Task: structure prediction
Amino acid sequence: MDDLVIPLLIKLHRRQKLVYDRTAIAREETPPDVNAEFRRRSRIGAGGFQSVVRLWKLLLPGNGWTSLAFLSHKILRWLGPAFLLLAMAANLMLIDHPVYQATLVCQFVFYATASAGIFLPGNGKMVRLLRLTTMFTSMNVALAFGFYRWMSGLQRGPWQRTAR
Result:
């Protein structure tokens, strides 16, 4: 999380301007399997929650666009698992209404599709498209696990680099 936290701490404490360089190129290799990606994503999620503790003052309106960017591009994404659980809970509580019955069915179909994506063989266009639901769901589960790691104090010290 250093690539996020260090510049934002400089922005926060020294009031230095952050400059976007359009010519900068970053490359990131993906881990070889879904389990390695899950571990990496949960570690990054836990680090993200740790960073909020250090950077919460960036959310104050006096920080202008940085505040909005931090909220919209980081905080809301990290809270995605909570929003998904709240949506499911709301649908379950409102199950007597036809609209919420339909949205609950859509949620179950989405999560069933995501689960099926784990087991489907092949690499065809339709399978890859279906696996987008798998990736979305597994990344949100990893973020939730990262939140748990952060809250329980399991996220400490050095981390193991993901094989790539």
